[in-house]
Amino acid sequence: MSYRSVVDTHEMRHLVIQALIEHGGGGGEPAERITDEMFIGASGLGISSLALLQVLVRLEEQLGFTFEDAAVANASFATVGELVGFVSKLARGSGGSHTSEGSA
Amino acid sequence: MTSVLLTQERAPESGADRGAPLLLLLHGWGMYRGHLFDLTTSYDPRFAVVAAQAPVRMGPGAYRWFDFTRTLDAGPIINDQEEESSLAKLLSFIDNLVEARDPSQLYLLGHSQGATMALSVALQRPARLAGCANVNGRLLGKRVAEAEAPNLLEGMSFYCGHGLHNPIVPLALGHRTRDLVAELGASVTYREYDIGHEITPAVLSDVSTWLTAELDRVPHG
Lengths: 104, 221
Fold this sequence. Notes:
The complex is a heterodimer.
Chain A: H1 9-22, H2 49-63, E1 65-67, H3 69-73, H4 80-94, E2 96-98
Antiparallel strand pairs in A: 1-2
Helix pairs in contact in A: 1-2, 1-4
Chain B: E1 7-10, E2 22-26, H1 34-37, E3 48-52, E4 56-59, E5 62-64, E6 68-69, E7 77-78, H2 80-101, E8 106-111, H3 113-124, E9 131-135, H4 141-146, E10 157-163, H5 171-183, E11 187-193, H6 201-217
Parallel strand pairs in B: 2-3, 2-8, 8-9, 9-10, 10-11
Antiparallel strand pairs in B: 1-3, 4-5, 6-7
């Protein structure tokens, strides 16, 4: 069963926002107040680069999906919406793979 | 011990990996094998280029050789267990690589803790290496303590580049590394840059020029 059959865009957005909150994003703001336009970093949710990495690891765990190193290393996303779009795009098959074990 | 490091590779212009001079790239903390490799057009085409990926995965696109804790004045305090494990894997990887390719010369280029790993390799496998480029790395005290021969690095060439405003590996540690490498008998080219801990195109350009000069100085093949 592919990831696409169980997670639609709305669900992906929910997963991303929950992961951001779990790693300190938003300073206690409820998920409903986090919008796509909000910046992820210091000028918005306050997510550090290391915390963002942990967010991506959390999403990998939840989705059973491993992001390709190069895709993430070369990516640029500043806002919540851009992150949701990035994760959705990779998960659709253009920058990751379904795995059950680590790649390192 | 078998090697488990993932790699990315570029063939030399000669087309034959075996016997060609070999440049091994070691990325820094939180990077991946593509970080230095993506700049391979900068490196002399006579080199076969191999980029090794650190064994500890932090997340997508982010790996480390070892964990560390920052201090304000003494530089980073490292996780010894991870460092020792990664060094053992890297040494095994290099031994296998040299056995397979028999390079005319082997150079290492490391950034940050990749440079620290490269310097440790130089102390552990001096006969394997022709030289080493270290950008914003440092020699680990425990590795220096293991270096028993006073001229262990004699005949090797080092390029040491360090950021004047390096918040991770303070400039003083860059100076100490430069001095220790020289005391161990190596020929050292040292340069400081108006940067922090990063590696910039200007630094890579200098390293690339140095590597080309090394190949010209000691003809290979």
